[in-house]
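Chapter review: from sequence to fold.
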Amino acid sequence: MQSHPYLIQADARRHLLTITFDTVFWDLHVVERFGAECRDSVASFDCSPGQHLVLVDLRNAVLQGQEVYGRLQALIGSATARRIALVASTPLARMQTKRLQVRDNIIMFADIDEAHAWLFDAIREAA
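The token string follows.
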């Protein structure tokens, strides 16, 4: 039995979308479904557009093919989030993940606690 390629958790109180990638290879259909589910989750938040936060946990993710990775890069690059934290732990995953940092508000971390701290600094800055 194949596991689900990702888990999306929406925390409406903190306007936080947490995405956890699993150890599954994606195809373009999965990328499209993933994008739609992310958009639906963000639409459920009661905040102004672009004010939500996103944590993408890639610590268990497998390296994806170029076409899939290109689509993921486009999705993340077009996201309207205030901040996006990417968490990748292995050197090879960090090399691939670094290509997702297409804007100043997208930062990569090796440690999930550091990623959370950076995301929630945005909330403290806005207060």
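Two observations follow directly from the output. The CA atoms of residues 6 and 21 lie 4 Å apart. Strands lie at 6-11, 16-21, 53-57, 83-87, 106-109.
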